[in-house]
Amino acid sequence: MDVDGASSPPLRYTSLPPSSAPVPTPSSPGPSRATPRRNRQQSDALGLSDNEAQAVEDDAPQPSRRRGRARNHMGADVPIVKDGVGEKVQEAFETFLRTFTEEVDLAPTPASEAGVPSAPDGELIYIEQIHTMRDFELTTLYVDYGHLIKLDETLAEALTKQYYRFLPFIRRAVHNLVAEFEPDYLKINPTAAATDSVNLESREFNVAFYSLPLVSGIRDLKTERIGTLMSISGTVTRTSEVRPELLYGSFICEVCGGLVNDIEQQFKYTEPSLCPNPICGNRTAWQLQIDTSKFTDWQKVRIQENPSEIPTGSMPRSLDVILRSELVERAKAGDKCVFTGTFIVVPDVSSLGLPGGENATLQRESARAQGGTAASSIGGAGVTGLKSLGVRDLQYKTAFLACMVQDADGYRRNNVRGEENGEESNTDAFANSLTDPELQELQHMIQDEHIYSRLVGSIAPTVYGHEIVKKGLLLQLMGGVHKQTPEGMHLRGDINICIVGDPSTSKSQFLKYICSFLPRAVYTSGKASSAAGLTAAVVKDEETGDFTIEAGALMLADNGICAIDEFDKMDISDQVAIHEAMEQQTISIAKAGIHATLNARTSILAAANPIGGRYDRKKSLRANVAMTAPIMSRFDLFFVVLDECDEKSDLNIAKHIVNVHRFQDQAIDPEFSTEALQRYIRYARTFNPKMTPEAADVLVEKYRILRQDDASGASRNSYRITVRQLESMIRLSEAIARANCKTEITPAFVREAFSLLRQSIIHVEQDDIDFDEEELRGEREGDRRPRASSHVDGEDSQGVEMSGLQSGVDDMYEPGASGANGPSSHAPSRATSQVPQPQGEQGGPAQQPKPKRRMVITHDKYVTLQSLIVLHLSQVERETGTGMDRDELIDWYLELKEEEIQDVEELEYEKELITKMLRKLVKDNYLIEIRGDVQDSLPPSMEESSGQQTADSQEGNVRVYYMVHPSVDTESSSSV
Amino acid sequence: MTADYRTQAVEDPTVVVQELYRAHAGSPDFPRLVAEHFAKLFESPNAFKKIPALNVHRPPETFRDGALVRFRAMVQDTSLSTEMYLAKHSDGTCGGWGIYEPESASSSSATDVDYANLRECNVLWATSVPAESDWCGEEMDGSNTPTQTDSPSPSSSRAYKYPHPELGHVGIQIKLYERENVESFKASDVVTFVGILSTEPCGLDQTQDILADAPTLHVLFTKSHAPNVVPRPFPRVSRSNRDGVLLSISSNSPATPAEDTAQIREELIAWIADEALGGDRHAAEWILLSCIARVQSRHPPLLPPPLVVSHFPPPPPVPSTAPWSAAPLPTLSAVLGLLLPLSHTLSLSLDSLNKSTFTPESKDEDLHAGVLQLPQGTVLLVSEGGVREGQLLERGVLNVRALQEVMDAQTLAYVFPFSRFAFPTDIACVVLAEGRRSAFFRAELSVPIRASPAAVAALYKPREAVKVPPREKLDAFRDLVVGARGGTVVVPEGTSEHIQAQFVSARQDDRSVTPDDLIRWMTVSKLYALSLHEPTLSVETWQRAKAFDDQRRALVA
């Protein structure tokens, strides 16, 4: 084909009355499209000036024959300026399309001659696409922006910066290629060409870019972005009907009857300015020829900011997006879409009817809304006398001219969750979006070794204590990694948590905290949910009578957290829905003829009240909560929050409450502000941690332990341990790794995950502590519960260090101690072998006469005692730097209890109790037991000490010291 | 800046803007310059008062095009799209603020609009402040408003954008050219906009083909308001007897703290009790505490506790000849209106619950106001007296939930297509319930009213029958209530020690005492101290407040 567009001729392609002149050229739209643009925007770097022309490409319904206005770009008297840069872009883009193959690593030398493809081997995907376009009768060429960057970064940059300016050139490039590879496809009716060249219709080709690295929000659209290539995301709120838009008009001169073809319509109804017939001179009287004019599909959709992008307290912004040709009907109301295209300025709707007459070239946009072509196709009967109306200036508004629509969820890189093959680029992209101080703060946080525990401390600062719950919430905010199996099955990464507890124990506060923390969180109450529904509802639109789907709480929280209070009071139907949402992450709807499966990828944070109002420790968790086992097992973590009634915690709570009222936010003063925490979490979520082989081994082992535990019936699990718990453990490990901003999951993370899970599912209900049973168990070697052995491994990272340290201590004392007591009493395996001896010493005599009182205390008391002892010890340690002698400790305890003790018997009982208590604490890794004098253990005095010890032990019993186990967090122990 | 210049600015602000532009041509941030210039020009309260106020009594139609006005308004809708305007016309003159190119000038350059000169301006919708009391409006706009026209001006054409469309109001499109702090205008904020009034097509009608014009205010500068609109000092100061003008506000002379606060408080309680509660002083005192409650902090949440006044008799039966709508409002409504700058009475009936919408909802890109879209600091009196047996429909349930959420969390959901967002509110609620508890709402505080059957009719006596105390007394009442609303109470170390110890021992004695009780005691005691205008919470006040609460609990039980 004659693509002579390069030297755009000054005159339009006109077809004069048959009598006067032959058709000059078969109309070729390429040049004609480019020309008007080029003659006006040369100097404007931003390519702004042609926006108006393009942006306003509006087939106005009022052709207004009388409008006698100067149209400079149509006038033949205006010199045509060539856009040299544009030509180059066209050339480069053509080369890109010709040469790009998937395997290309280096940019090949650009083809020197446009006609000769210098393609390397491998599939030329874009050339292929051109063939495909023909086969499927498509007119849009889809170009992966990533390819463009890979091959020709300069071109990509030029296109991004001045997309609007170069748009006609890249379209011409496609046109040229089609002309070359599929010449027949260029015309809509090639066979007719021979007979009637005037009626030849040529196709319009479009280029759609996709996979831009960055997706902006509607709020980011600023005037400086006008004309650049960009992607924006938003939720479609309404779509107009599809209408034809006039692209090129054919006009008949009403004076001489001559035909003028291909009058480009630039967002407005445009007539030829002057009849090309030299003897005619008509400027005003034109009639549109519909059958020879060219139309394209056109649709306007309104999009609204995605909820996650709206600053708190602001209302969502909206924007019009213009879709053309094959893009129409790609977006439905309610879809979350990513649009690629450019931000443009159009004269405002609102100036319609009023605007100063001469400005009428820029038609109001609503003209289009009115069904532009419907009106224009009727012909010239438009509004006249616009000129006489008003003196007001135009107002302008912005719109987005899209060349590509994609479903946001399918959008590869910039997934809302900020993951999935995002890798480094995502992490960097987020880092780039921060201001300097923010970035510095973030870096500080990342470098901190103890960031995990510090983060936990900043979660839900209004709630006093409950560190474990806070840990769980942090991990829920972090989330595990979403995975997809090769078969395309999605594995959820969301972590579901349930908090069960006594009334007024700040359960709701946790829920409310999460909702205020996360923009995409929804708070709902199980009791009230049936009114609005957790699931989606099918609603009949009062006006149109159409059924539409109204989002329920779960859908609203898509990609966020759905906090459900009073979970136990939920409707059965909602429970079923929750069940589906928790596992499949979808919600199915089958109502009023609508069958739909909707995404509901939410983490669930539930709070439930125990049956009967108060949590009964005698019963299992399952018996305490009105929930079915399948639902229970879908929670990764369960936390039980109890209303502990003791003076100390009461005082702490009182202090906390009073301080909140005294100092408001200063009272709670978390280490990290909410904003810093939010940034950190967003950053951390860009990580997709992977298991290290060592971690995987630990994971397998821990899972084995859980299973074994389960099988032996030793544990009091709420439900069977299945693969589901393994998945939970993986998710938790991933979340912990994220919290530490690490890309690898280390064994320490797995241990932490395991300990959380164990505390959650096994330690949830604590029966009374029966010391006798405990000891019996300890004595029978074979009976040792697997869990005990896991203790020796160490539960978590600190645990590992601890056991190392401890065995070191043990080693140190080996010589001295063995001299004193013989090998039996102090074997490094602590509690078990030592148990019988002290018991005999202390409990024995006093208890002999009576039937032995069973050493049973409630778990409540156990916890109280435990925190009492640990706190006391840690205080002593802080003050003296040493541990505490056992006898001293017992004395201290007895003094404490003095008032309550009535007689000797009781004294003896208490004494035995505390002894056993201490032993159990050692066994449970709350304390460490050290034999001999701590001070003496210092390396320089090693020999001396052993000597002294020998002396000591000769005097009688070896001294036993207790210290707080290093893995015990003295701050939080009271709240466990 | 002479008075003349100021007068000129009032007379013809557009010219002043144009002159300013000429003087500062090419200034990169001209809109800010304009804002600063005008803000400075009308800095003094007297000069500011010279600007004519736009309100229900002087609706936009009464002003000529291009007049300078001030409009105290509630921001109703911020979701309107931004607009572009030509900041510089082709002849080099200033654009924006409703200044457009004359036709003759534009004709030559019609097609050559220089897009580099386009600037963005923000558009929002504002209405006259809902729930505002008459006395508050008079105080702010001055009493020089023309004698009230008998017919309260029929509301704007977009009545649905006002929370209570049945009441007279003004709704205006606001165009903000100074974009620096434009994001700080949030829905339900009360702001005074000063600018040039004109009429322009409304940006709301995105989806319509024909655009209706709407009164438009091109903002020159804005003035934000204290939460109570009419601030009063805390602790209370004595008024100079002349004119009843507050000394501390109008001059610099040291304020003399009022000695008689406790006495005024008693008188106030007595007045509320006698006029509106059938003489029940205990309930009146709780009403007073509720009236001064506000959101102290959102993180951690220290919110106003909703109060239910139970056993509140229903209104006396209306003669069947009277129209349904004639169901009388409780007199308490009028009493609160006399005391508070912002108060609203919501008379619930099944019909109103099922038909009205409490939450703002965006329909066709246009945010319709909901009944609960009230400015921060409003006291909402909810009367359940009109509820009869019947069916509560879905909308009714949603409305009840919305109000419950306001009570519990002080947030109100705004409904947008495919999403809903919670916006912060600060609305103290008092519910008048017929039964032992409210039919619809859970409230932390509940107090039964003990009125003799004879007094029932007096609970619903018409507004005119309220014995308004003498001017001075009323001013003192308002000082007390409004001042307390704006005050803060410090809890000193000693008191907090005492409170903690008391809580611990209370827990020891009675396990049913929960932390929630302590939270309530703290809230009540701080309100109690506020009502006494005591800036610190003393142990004595704490004990009194706790006893006061215990007394209430005894009554409820």
Automatic annotation (TrEMBL), chain A:
Tell me which PROSITE patterns the record gives. MCM_1, MCM_2
Per UniProt, the ranges with Pro residues bias are 19-29
| Matches recorded under Gene3D superfamilies | 1.20.58.870, 2.20.28.10, mini-chromosome maintenance (MCM) complex, chain A, domain 1, Nucleic acid-binding proteins, P-loop containing nucleotide triphosphate hydrolases
Chief location: nucleus
Q: What is its EC number?
A: 3.6.4.12
PANTHER family for this protein: DNA REPLICATION LICENSING FACTOR MCM FAMILY MEMBER, DNA REPLICATION LICENSING FACTOR MCM6
**Which protein is depicted?**
DNA replication licensing factor MCM6
Q: Which organism is it from?
A: Dichomitus squalens
UniProtKB/TrEMBL annotation, chain B:
In terms of InterPro entries, this protein maps to: MCM_complex-bd
GO MF, one term, reads: chromatin binding
Q: Which organism is it from?
A: Dichomitus squalens
Region of interest called Disordered, as start-end residue ranges on this chain: 135-159
Task: State one Pfam family annotation.
Answer: MCM_bind
User: Subcellular localization, per the record?
Assistant: Nucleus
GO biological-process terms attached to the record: DNA-templated DNA replication
- tRNA-binding in keyword set: no
Question: What is the protein name for this chain?
Answer: Mini-chromosome maintenance replisome factor-domain-containing protein
Give start-end positions of Low complexity composition bias: 143-157
**Ribosomal protein in keyword set:** no
Quick one: a GO cellular component term? nucleus
Q: Which domain of life is it from?
A: Eukaryota
Keyword entries, A-Z: Nucleus
